[in-house]
Amino acid sequence: QVLLVESGGGLVQAGGSLRLSCLVSGRVFSRYSMGWFRQAPGKEREFVASITWEGSNTYYSDFAEGRFTISRDNDKSTVYLQMNTLKPEDTALYYCASATTPYSSGRLYPDDIRSWGQGTQVTVSS
Q1: Quick check: 6 and 98 in contact, CB under 8 A?
Q2: Are 31 and 45 within 8 A, CB to CB?
């Protein structure tokens, strides 16, 4: 059973930073691309960022580019999302996601996802 457990969410003022973590168990973490998605109330889930299995390529949505950084530590089976200069519109439930296919390249889309975490809430106050 693949488990993804996110942590690091919370309440922060606009302009602040948060670092999300996602610990993965139940599979060989280093073989799979990983990603972050988010869902705000009343909106569809949207792509935030993804990183390929070996960590050499990263992909960002337009709103994340330049403010967010995705990284991974294969020894710790953990993927991170460093979020800087947060805005109220970044308020959402952030989900960690693991790809279905090993050694895949390119960014992750929802159809590519094998497993989801339970989400961690990020709230940015103005």
Answers
A1: no
A2: no
- Distances from the Cα of 93 to the Cα of 7, 13, 50, 105, 124, angstroms: 11, 16, 16, 26, 12
Tell me the per-residue pLDDT of 43-92, one tens digit each, with 9 for 90 and over: 999 999 999 999 999 999 999 999 999 999 999 999 999 999 999 999 99
Sign of the alpha-carbon torsion through 109, 56, 33, 87: negative
Amino acid identity, residue 114?
R
Using 50, 70 and 90 to split pLDDT, how confident is the model at 11?
very high
Are residues 100 and 2 in contact, defined by beta-carbon separation less than 8 angstroms? no
